[in-house]
Amino acid sequence: MTDTIEPGADLIAEADAATERLAAVKDSIGRVIFGLEKEVELCLTALLSGGHTLLVGAPGLAKTRLVETIAVATGLDTKRIQFTPDLMPADILGSEILEESDDGKRHFRFLPGPIFCRLLMADEINRASPRTQAALLQAMQEGHVTVAGERHDLPHPFHVLATQNPIEQEGTYPLPEAQLDRFLLRVDVPYPDRDAERQVLLATTGATAAEAIEVLNAEEIIKLQSLVRRLPVGEKVLEAILDLLRLARPDESEIEAVREGVSWGPGPRAGQAMMLACRARALLQGRLAPSTEDVAALAEPILKHRMALSFAARADGHTLEGLIQTLADQAA
């Protein structure tokens, strides 16, 4: 349920038009991506919220294809970085090169790296070393990078859609907690069900393949992000978010499993992410204001990468997914 908030007529008309445009975006993506409607909605939720998305799943589940398709449908210029153990920070950010002019004077010129785009596809981000992973921290949080003491602003909007293989696989480096917290949502990509996999096989092995079409552009996305921030949030939704955060923190939680089994919990950035994501999800579904149902639905994507179970809790058979579901049920 939401509180009784009466949006203005202009806001209602703007939201209705935005919902139609976003439905066209989902239709465009659906021409290429099958059986991942929930995951597509979560990615668009993060985009409308102005945040970054971490896609986690085994190889071959169309994570990269999903990012490419979103880039086409949203009209954002995109660049891709394939993360490998030998990738260096300069390969992402760019570097200064020494040039000599015609009169013999030497000077440094900044050569921008692939991060200078509006939608950065960071493919298999956990294959790179921690030093290279950390090169993204400033860009993801502040929208600019610093090279040789000089600030270089990134285009606006700027989003990172990163893919990650499971940490347990050989040759991966766990992302540090500080970087995980920069991702607004973590989206787990599952194996397709039988019907979706049938569609994939038929659509991708023929003589021709369907392609997504461009629906939005950067300017429209900026306007949609502004609209999301203007949507009203009821007091019940705000209280549900605050309750969820406190239940998830071991020092404050009333739940014994959290107090004894959670090593660290979410900070205020998780609450900021939830406030924005709830509004964005409501807009995607044609609603003018979020409900506590949005809080429950987004609890796992927002909290899963911002919490960690202790070794003892994992040994006792507890799972983070089950614990977050308990928290969401109690808070919402």
Order of helices and strands: HHEHEHEEEHHEEEHEHHHHEHHEHH
What's the count of strands? 11
Gyration radius (Cα, Å) is 21 Å
Low-pLDDT runs of 5+ residues are none
What composes the largest sheet? 5 strands, parallel
Q: Proportion of β residues?
A: 15-25%
**Secondary structure category:** alpha/beta
Overall 3D form = globular
List the topology elements.
Elements: H1 9-30, H2 37-48, E1 52-56, H3 63-74, E2 78-82, H4 90-93, E3 94-100, E4 106-112, E5 119-123, H5 130-133, H6 137-142, E6 144-147, E7 150-153, E8 159-164, H7 177-180, E9 183-188, H8 194-204, H9 218-230, H10 235-248, H11 256-261, E10 262-264, H12 268-284, H13 292-303, E11 308-309, H14 311-315, H15 320-331
Parallel strand pairs: 1-8, 1-9, 2-5, 5-8
Antiparallel strand pairs: 3-4, 6-7, 10-11
Helix pairs in contact: 1-3, 2-12, 10-12, 10-13, 10-15, 12-13, 13-15
Quick rundown:
The protein folds into 2 domains: 8-230, 3-Layer(aba) Sandwich (Rossmann fold); 232-332, Orthogonal Bundle (Helicase, Ruva Protein, domain 3).
